[in-house]
Design brief:
disordered C terminus; 493 residues; alpha+beta; 30% helix; 27 strands; six-stranded antiparallel sheet; single chain; seven-stranded antiparallel sheet
Length: 493
């Protein structure tokens, strides 16, 4: 069941949108539990990973129902909706489109037939061989039509072909014609044909599945309930539903969970290249990535930043909330007091109301407002996680000067972003990236700051406590661990 009466909301951010992750995924296998509510709260914990649409699919063992719409998790679902999603297995998704269009048709989970039943699928990431997979799907279409014709005799609500433009729907379609003895066998074969970044959570009527690409670009964690299992993009979602963190789903691993327990399969050799930007910005600070608490990594980035770019100043402030842990680390290492210089409006985000031109000109004040008493006459260190186009930082510098700041020294807890991401982060195009065409000194002048310092690549990586060879740093270094088409079409998840 899908509700299509929602509207696409608008985000008030007229100056600069920071890097956005594609999606958050969640799955639960727990007989006897209110699985829809568990999934709802799991998605609530993953809301930061996508705010355009949300959806839940649930199975009672014989039928899968899907409920999805545009908007935040709290906007899409109501108590009566969750009561309709009965069963023992559920898959949930919260979406932010990368290169795919933000529309109801692209909301997830997707639903499609297979020779073994129905599959509901949720995806975080971005596939890099979309064209090849689409050609494969086209070549199988005649056979798929026969499968659909047979399936619709039994499941009138199931269809094989896409009404959307994203790679998740393409994978769902390919399941309709993937040969195999059962869905597990078909999944192992299909996953070998898929390239790019993917953390998948999917299910048929009786089994929950989770899979992660061989590089493990996007995170995916496994948790244990007293009477079941949970998989989620981040451990914070496990915490909120009371699941204990067992381990991460390994790169190149497929997990299947049903009444016989948990089974693990290997569809590819692990070649870890985990996204370092998860540590910088994307993941929640209270999540654990590869054994490292994200908040600790960000605080350490701030310490490294203070070592690499010290400055005489009176106060360290953060661009809330993403810059706060690094700002605390900078203050601790430098000995400069940490204080609150900006007040964030927690209720500005998604709205149905387009800002007027006057409000657009006010720009960043829609989200942030200076605390004049704390910053007037002060030499400030302003810590943020990244600079994309530079519009937000430029407006922020101007606003702080108007509030009486004596000096403004910007410190960034990631290196300059010079390259686009093809693995599930919505950065600006390379031409729009301010660091692509300007030196640090030129960027500083463009922003109107007194000084600007980016953490070094080595310093950032050291703060994560991960091996450099096992991290993807493509947006900073231009070194892509998975071959990409540098002119991707409109196909993102």
């Amino acid at each position: 069941m899908a509700r299509g009466d929602g509207q696409l909301t608008h985000e008030i951010d007229p100056l600069d949108r920071g890097p956005q992750d594609a999606c958050g995924v969640f799955g639960v296998w727990a007989p006897g539990e209110e699985i829809a509510k568990l999934t709802y709260f799991g998605l609530y914990a993953l809301q930061h990973r996508g705010q355009e649409s949300a959806g839940i699919a649930a199975s009672n063992g014989s039928q899968i129902l899907v409920y999805r719409d545009m908007g935040l998790v709290s906007q899409v679902f109501h108590e009566r909706d969750l009561e309709l999603l009965q069963g023992h297995i559920a898959v949930g998704h919260t979406r932010y489109s990368t290169t795919g269009s933000p529309s109801f048709e692209n909301a997830q989970p997707t639903l499609g037939p297979t020779p073994f039943g129905t599959v509901a699928l949720a995806h975080n990431g971005n596939l890099t061989n979309f064209d090849e997979l689409e050609q494969l799907a086209d070549s199988r279409r005649d056979h798929a039509n026969k499968v659909v014709a047979e399936a619709t005799k039994k499941r009138s609500r199931t269809r094989a072909f896409r009404d959307s433009s994203n790679d998740t729907s393409l994978v769902t379609e390919l399941f309709a014609t993937e040969p195999g003895e059962d869905l597990t066998d078909a999944a192992l074969k299909l996953l070998c044909e898929v390239d790019g970044a993917f953390s998948l959570v999917f299910m048929d009527e009786n089994t929950l599945y989770a899979a992660r690409d061989p590089q493990g670009v996007r995170p995916l964690s496994l948790g244990r309930l007293s009477n079941g299992w949970v998989v989620a993009s981040e451990t914070a979602a496990l915490d909120i539903v009371g699941a204990s963190h067992v381990r991460d789903v390994e790169p190149g691993e497929l997990i299947a969970i049903d009444e016989d327990g948990l089974r693990s399969f290997r569809f590819a050799e692990a070649k870890p290249a985990r996204c370092v930007f998860e540590y910088v910005y994307l993941a929640r600070p209270d999540s654990v990535l590869d054994g490292q608490i994200v908040h600790g990594a960000r605080t350490e980035m701030g310490r490294k930043l203070a070592q690499e770019f010290p400055v005489d100043a009176d106060l360290v402030i953060a661009t809330p909330e993403s810059g706060t842990p690094a700002a605390v680390g900078y203050a601790e290492e430098s000995g400069i007091p940490f204080g609150q210089g900006l007040m964030k409006n927690a209720y500005v985000g998604r709205t149905f109301i387009q800002p007027s031109q006057t409000l657009r000109e006010l720009g960043i004040r829609l989200k942030l407002n200076p605390i004049r008493e704390n910053i007037e006459g002060k030499r400030l260190v302003v810590v943020d996680d990244s600079i994309v186009r530079g519009n937000t930082q430029r407006a922020l510098v101007r606003m702080l000067r108007e509030a009486g700041a004596k000096e403004i020294h910007i410190r960034i807890s990631s290196p300059p972003v010079k390259w686009p991401c093809y693995y599930g982060i919505d950065f600006a195009t390379r031409a729009e990236l301010i660091a692509n065409g300007l030196s640090t000194e030129e960027i500083c002048t463009s922003l109107g700051a007194d000084s600007l310092g980016y953490i070094s690549l080595d310093g950032m990586i050291e703060a994560t406590k991960q091996e450099r060879s096992q991290l993807c740093t493509a947006c900073f270094s231009g070194e892509y661990p998975i071959p990409v088409n540098t002119t991707p079409a409109d196909k993102g998840c």
